[in-house]
Amino acid sequence: MTRGLFGPGTIVLGGGAVLLTVFLLIGFLLPTTWEAQAEATVPAPPAALLPFLDSPEGWQAWTPWPDSTSRSGPERGEGASISWSSRELGSGAFRIESSTPLAFSYTVSVEGAGGAVMETRGSVTLSPEGAGTRVVWRESGDLGRNPLMGYWALSMDRAQSTEMQKSLGRLTEVVGEAAEEGSPRLPDGAADVLDGSVRPDSARTR
Fold it and tell me: What is the pLDDT of residue 203?
């Protein structure tokens, strides 16, 4: 009996290599950018949300962060930054780029595999609605030209929007807690804004 040129093992390995090559080629062609958005109405005026948006400490009260962080820049407003180095999350930094009583923007830079830096840009806008505030939170980013990241980008929009919506729910909770006297989660300067003893624009320079 004569053997074929290629045995079963060779055929299986060859087919696997072809499938892997096709998988990677498709990944290179997939879009690497993503956009996410979440909205919520918080039963509080914009001034009550300000302390949770114009400083890294405020963001830490309602969004997840690595356990160990390092602070830099001013206390509040543009340039206020926080960085971290985590075995699980890698190295990264969060920086507030602009801050006004009704709009905020920020960047998040994370060092990925091979030293590639992935940057996320985000913004939060506040719109008074009666006794409450409509919060619109947007994020966008580019995962870079990595074939595996292309597949990740396909689900990033929905996944990140879901996580952002959860965080806005937490923001609603902490704003309510901060309104209660002696709340341990109240960031520095929040009590002055909430009781009206300082204006929102002056709170950022304290």
Answer: 37
Helical spans, DSSP H, in the chain = 8-29, 46-49, 56-60, 147-178, 190-194, 200-203
Domain membership of residue 71 (yes or no) is yes
Among the listed residues 65, 75, 107, the one whose alpha carbon sits nearest the alpha carbon of residue 190:
75
Contacts of 73 (CB under 8 A, 6+ apart): 79, 80, 81, 95
168: buried, middle or exposed (CB in 10 Å: 19+, 13-18, 0-12)? buried
- Tell me whether residue 8 is in a domain: no
- Confidence (pTM): 0.70
pLDDT tens sequence across 162-172: 999 999 999 99
Structural domain boundaries, residue 148: 28-203
Q: Is residue 88 part of a domain?
A: yes
pLDDT in tens, 87-140: 776 789 999 999 999 999 999 998 865 566 788 999 999 999 998 999 999 999
Cα–Cα distance between 67 and 73 in angstroms, integer? 20
Domain CATH code at residue 162 = 3.30.530.20
